[in-house]
Amino acid sequence: MVADSSYIAVEVVAGSAEAQQLVSLKLPAGATVAEAVALARLDERLPELGLDPECVGIFGKRCRPEQMLSDGDRVELYRPLRADPKVVRRELAELAKAQKAAEKKGPASDQGS
User: Fold this and answer.
1) Which family does it belong to (predicted)?
2) What is the DSSP secondary-structure string of 15-61?
């Protein structure tokens, strides 16, 4: 990574299916996630994503913006959810149950016509 121990190398990433951005930064040792996010300016590069600088993680694990970074860290900015995963799972389960019930009724109702 970075030979000088007073600096660390980190990456800040964000994206969607259509657009991704990765910014490599060299920061002073002791820098925080919030500082890296501010310097990367991904909210300006990807305004359509509606990124929240408070919704961040390091290598897929949610963290607080004041978390100190280590050399080689990858800071990730997470997009807001479009739908609540619990609600989506429940709706899909109900749909599958309704389809299964319709399949059981389907052949019997055809014979009665």
Assistant:
1) Belongs to the UPF0125 (RnfH) family.
2) E-SS-EEEEEEEEETT-BHHHHHHHHTHHHH-GGG---TTSEEETTE
